[in-house]
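Possible regression after last week's pipeline update?

I re-ran a chain I had predicted before the update to compare outputs. Posting the input and the new output here so someone can diff against the archived version. Not blocking, just want to make sure nothing changed silently.
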Amino acid sequence: MMAENLRWRYAVVLLLGYASLGAVEVELSWQASGEGDIVGYNVYRADPAALRADPAQRVAARVALTRWRDTGVPNRASVAYGLTAVDADGNESQLCTPASVALTRDAFRRIDPEHHDGHVGAAVHRRGARYTVAPVAAGDRVRLDRVDFADGAALVTIELASESGGAELALHLDGTDGAPVAVIDVPATGAPDRFAPVTVPVDALTGVHDLHLVFVTASPAVAVDHLHFSRHARRVDIDSAGQSAGDTVEVRLDGDPTSDAAVPASLTGLDPGLAHRLRFLVVPGAPQ
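New output (post-update):
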């Protein structure tokens, strides 16, 4: 049978998107094709504006049933799905009418700002295997819709690059007129393609919001690769004073920094003849 002779009779009849801890899943079901020699269905996924029957976008091949669950949904505000029918000779029908699914982004998973939902001025650049966002002018920004902070975020970590440092970024919720929830002073990473994580506290963030990443300054140059939020921050204070700014100390934690229990810590490198003050944040590991 030639692919162009496949009678297209099925459509997506149910799309259910739901979020669970650490993952977003979308369940698809559809009406079967009326052709007698159909052996399965190919499933394609992409951004809503870019979906096509491209092998690079195929996420499942020859699904025998008329339902399938996607457990690897990217962390975006929306995705689109399309299906094709495949016959016994390997012929593939045309792509059905795509169906878009509105999702919430999980704040505690990796968020790639190049997959934004709107921007002013900021441009997407490719740096090797990375896609990054960088400003064209001061005030440029990108909008990331429907970011779910659940019961609270305490920190944000942004992976960025800036050869000389000195730029400033800000994060706003639901618009850019109000005060930022976080301000990031960009450090020097030594090269425009050398990326490093920067972690700062954020105001108590809960619920679902549109997140705005604002490049307060466009110079010195800075590029943002990705970001994620963390629920826990443990602050340790040792009340004292007198350590020289250039001295190096080592801190080792002997417990779970995300638990409510006390975390034993050992320090080396402090001058025992001086009083000291130490303040630091314990940051959980990066998300998968």
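Follow-up from reviewer: compared with the archived run. Residues 1-22, 234-268, 278-284 have pLDDT under 50 and may be disordered. Marking as no regression found.
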